[in-house]
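Incident review: delayed structure delivery

Summary: a single-chain prediction request sat in the queue longer than the usual turnaround. Root cause was a stuck worker, restarted by the on-call engineer. No data loss occurred. The affected request and its eventual output are reproduced below so the record is complete for anyone auditing the incident later.

Affected input:
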Amino acid sequence: MNKTAPFDRFANRHIGISEQELPEMLSAIGVSSLDQLIDETVPPAIRMNRELNLPEAITEHELLEDLRRTGAMNRLCKSYIGMGYSGTITPSVILRNVFQNPGWYTQYTPYQAEISQGRLEALLNFQTMVSDLTGLPIANASLLDEGTAAAEAMHMFYGIKNKRNKGDAMNEFLVSDKVLPQTIDVLKTRARPLDIEIIVTDWRSFEFTDKTFGLLLQYPDREGTVEDYRALVEKARAQEVYVTVATDLLSLALLAPPGEWGADAAVGNSQRFGIPMGYGGPHAAFFATREEHKRQIPGRIIGVSVDTHGKKAYRMALQTREQHIRREKATSNICTAQALLAVMASMYAVYHGPKGIKAIAERTHTLAQILERHLKAMGYNQANAHYFDTLRLEMDGKMVETVRRTALAHETNFFYEDNAVQVSLDETVGMKELEAILAIFAEAKGTSFSLNGAEPASHQIPEALQRQTPFLEHIIFNSFHTETNMMRYLKQLENRDLSLVHSMIPLGSCTMKLNAATELMPVSWAAFANLHPFVPADQAKGYYKIFEELEQWLSEITGFAACSLQPNSGAQGEYTGLMVIRAYHESRGETHRNVALIPESAHGTNPASAVMAGMQVVVVKCDEQGDIDVDDLRAKAENHKDKLAALMVTY
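Output delivered after worker restart:
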């Protein structure tokens, strides 16, 4: 034994079994060593015959020190960029009692309702919050991100419309050019294998044809403008064109909700409900729609039922539409989708309640009005006629560069275009931050200002678009507004669940069961948590170091030449791999290759992902042990050889 080597290695605490347990376990299965076990279970043809080229293992203390150095490489500036991501304040009671609490973050998917009542109630709170704010009767819990949620809405309405339509496929989807650019990119990727035509244009010039099945609007839009879409939506509904609205939950505390002016679905990101930006994620997206679409909605839906004693109980509802049952006929390949972040966002609403949420929204909007007044006094042209939290200042390109240079000198980021600067305010902004923003614009203009004057007397939002209906009326959102009461509520829910704080959970291979405390702590550090995903790359050097190292290590472990970290779930990883395979065949001029061979024992996500990638699923038989029937695989590969695109195997 090397007495100078560190004892407390990370692996010793979290991976594998003890020296005392090993002989007992080997004896129980009838082998004398781990080498013998591997020899008898792993065929020589697929045994790795080399050592992995990876760094030496380190201790938890060394890991934390390394991450502190890496975090220091990020340059943490004030960011007022917007574009779907905002600064927010995570209440400490939620940070400590949910995010950093293994009683919440080690639970498995709530397939067994009797040991999942706590998190099922928390997720039902999320659904209620989303439904109330969007003005739509049913919501899921939850989705991966706003772009994915918009794509799921497009896919859902495409399926509904074409199931009803007996003629040629209706495949036109209209997208406002004021939708967030990252959402448009996701829509285009998801549309291509399904032969959906995305038409991006000014929403005022939308033209409905006999091919149009749906449209997407942003509310408020990417430039911060609050538009009145009611006439367009009325026209769309008259022609049976489905309307999806991507929206901001906090703004809906002040704005008329999409469901009230005719939207068929509302999607978006719950990030600004207490979830740090984290350089882009993870965050829980939301999806709300009308009652008649409940059997097509993607993701989990939590419902209220009764137990065997007649008492109220929660369970996952309408599971028969999900991929683990419907497989290639499923409405989506999405599974649990950021449930922990959905719980945190729901608890943010529980903790603040309707009064608190409205107060945060009103403060943000009022500060934006004060900012506009002073910027106009300096001579800036503010272009948004109506807005919630974002101002768009139009100027020539030379002035844009002057503002950018001045802002960077003061460690501040805005959103820049060739002839405009956008400033988006959020919960973290107070009068001190407002004064700092104004100082930047005054310096860029070579002028001065005095932050004074009365607060605006009213909202800047037109009366027709102001919210008139209450929200978050349920007692849960009106009871726990002190830390003690909130802590007790969280503990009460936690105690209704089974998690790793109680026992092992012998379910599922697709979900990481434990984020060690050492792994989780740095995620909440400001150096990692508070970076906006659109900051200049030189402000995120720590993140890029992590990306490059992880890509290198995963490539080494898997034996591949390169690695993508873009997918933010296993389902998305499957889809990405299938889309890469599709692109490979296209690059060779073999676009006819569209058959995917998938074993009948595969997780339902596999065939669902294949269909989303535009492939035809051919099922391969398995034996009684669940192993692939090689003869059937060989026969089906031969039978479909001219159109064969992919084989999906769980390995």
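Verification: The chain has a mean pLDDT of 93.
Action items: add queue-age alerting; document worker restart procedure.
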